[in-house]
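quick one before i forget lol
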Amino acid sequence: MVNERVKIFALSGSPRKGGNTDILTKIFIEYVNDMGAEAELVRICDYQISPCASCRLCVDAGKCVLEDGMRELYPKLLEADGILIASPVYFNNVSAQTKAFMDRTWCLRGKLKWKVGGAIVVGRRYGHELALNAIHSFFLKHEMILAYRGVVSFAFEKGEALNDKKAIECTRYLARSMVELIRKLKT
């Protein structure tokens, strides 16, 4: 049914609270909620997440054996119909915190299939394409469905994303695309 609950996990992968990545993630969430769906803001900086230890113990255990903030995030990822990953661009890629988060989902392989993914990247002048590629590759590795080509914002100083009208427009389009696609998949 179209009225069936739609839930989106919205990750802001910035270590800087209230920065440009958070700003666009909040705009995304506001638009999702305006459409009658639900999006939960998850700030990576609120969780202590260790990098993947490549221990491969998750293969036999069926879950990651590291005990940190990811323990709270795994159930939220599994419950969500869609996943938004927003990251600042650091050295032509996603932030280290975002990458650690993505790597730590190896234990969920096969469990995120058919969820809808969306990406937002925020950076100064370069590296956006590689950061988007990292997020899109993450979604494809998990056999997820991409809702849109991704949102690019040119911003550096705190608050500059509010001046990027095209990024705001595209963020709203991404929100609408994700919600509509999820609803179509549920019917």
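fyi The CA atoms of residues 4 and 83 lie 17 Å apart.
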